[in-house]
Fold:
Amino acid sequence: MATLEIRDLHVTVEADNATKEILKGVDLTVKQGETHAIMGPNGSGKSTLAYSLAGHPKYTITGGTVTLDGEDVLEMSVDERARAGLFLAMQYPVEVPGVSVSNFLRTSATAIRGEAPKLRTWVKEVREAMERLNMDPAFAERNVNEGFSGGEKKRHEILQLELLKPKVAILDETDSGLDVDALRVVSEGVNRVRETGEVGTLLITHYTRILRYIKPDYVHVFSAGRIVESGGAELADKLEEEGYEAYTKGGASA
Amino acid sequence: MGSTTAGSIAVAAESTVATRMSARPSFDVADFPVPHGREEEWRFTPLERLRGLHDGTATATAEGVKVAVEAPEGVVVETVGRDDARLGRAGTPVDRVAAQAYSAFERASVVTVPKETVLTEPIRIAVHGEGGTAYAHQVIELGAFAEALVVIDHTGDAVLAANVEYVLGDGAKLTVVSVQDWDAKAVHVAQHDALVGRDASFKSVVVTFGGDLVRLHPRVTYAGPGGEAELFGLYFTDKGQHQEHRLLVDHNVPHCKSNAVYKGALQGDDAHAVWIGDVLIEAKAEGTDTYEMNRNLVLTDGARVDSVPNLEIETGEIVGAGHASATGRFDDEQLFYLMARGIPEQDARRLVVRGFFAELVQQIGVPDIEERLIAKIEEELEAAVS
Structure:
């Protein structure tokens, strides 16, 4: 069973000619089949965690370990992490002009699977996955993320999640900027992947709204660069009622 | 990386494009002083690498370039003397090297597509450098309502200065693809003059990959209203190469269109690309619709781009006029996004660069040329990443 283990992770970022520590000792274990929600106020370091796990060069790991089934993730390049089974659905997916969605998806699937998918089954696979996400087939011929609406970008991220079948999926504020209909479609996509039982999900969000559609097994409150409280789904209900105030005050005084 | 991107929109009584040149256009090289390098039209060009084309010391050799014209039936291909009346109609040399070429060539090549002749096969002109120095003159003329595709290939090694004229009759449609795929030492300086007839369409595709120094001067003027010109360019400037494209579109009659799109990628130390885009809208050119754009993608440190769009408008009675220029480094966020989907770094870089050019390549509208360009871009990238 695939397991992502994060131990005492410390991460810094360079900003305004100064080094700032954003993550201050994160501990978390995500197993295949589990869904963990990480909730926290803006600026608490949630997205830094997501991008650090994926290997974004902007972030420097200054301490701690991250392993996937015992393999050292921090030693891997960005593409190696993806091929090892990590997937990051981005909050702000990047435009790649002149590269069509279909070319991108196939290149990516070829890299992840280690061989080019058979054309006939691949076309069908993509078409069906797009239908499930209510995506127009013409979408495949557009350039990656170019001119996409917020909802289209997020659907495209979840389309990749469905096609690439990672061991651990990190969803970075996938719910932000979505209307209720788009949120439902995107959540259904995530749930289809979860129901296979083969993916561990790390759902990073600011709002409890998405948790009505995607039920977490564990909820963690993130504040000032670390997890300050963990619990079951009921913790989300508490946050819904009380907000983050108790944690941000605590974080500031810590 | 160094780059300058300066743009201006000037409303002027007299064209500064004309006045800032160091001499008036002329067919006679004696009318141009030998440039010293600080002139507006020479300031980006390394004169010492022109091999004497600019100062009268480059003498034509017996083995200069070999020109082979392959034309479908119905096309008239001639070699003519200097006094042929069909020479020098589309434009006048605007700098000393073009005037030198006009003053020094011995025989000119004239390719004529008679009126109302619509070609289904391209005219292919192979210009192959044999290691010498040459001055050349080429005229391609389309009669009224004729349609043709011309592919000009430059290969081998040469020091070549040339004038190329495109004369389009009323309603004619001409697409010219000029590929500069020279060997590493070649020097190529040329002025391309297009005279676009009433309701005629001219499409120029300039593709520059090779050479030590390539400096091209595609220019368009209109002979009547309703003309359209599309100027597309693609360059891949490698280590040590100087590739300069200086465009001028002179909207000298009403109701004409022009659209210029040049894109370049640069890699390696002292790769230098220069793009000058001059568009004039003269006072009488009401109803003009024009746009010009230059984009550069800098792949490595040590490369330099100078990009100068310049739009001069002497009448407000126009449909549209715009220009854009941007030079950017390779976008690391694009690289991260692709790599985060398992795509190895080199493949990701290839995807991005291919994507950068793809939109432009698709506008060429000639499938076998498009395929060839994509293959050539791949080849350049292989050389870059390996």
In short: The longest strand of chain A covers residues 18-31. The domain at 3-96+168-237 of chain A is CATH 3.40.50.300 (Rossmann fold).
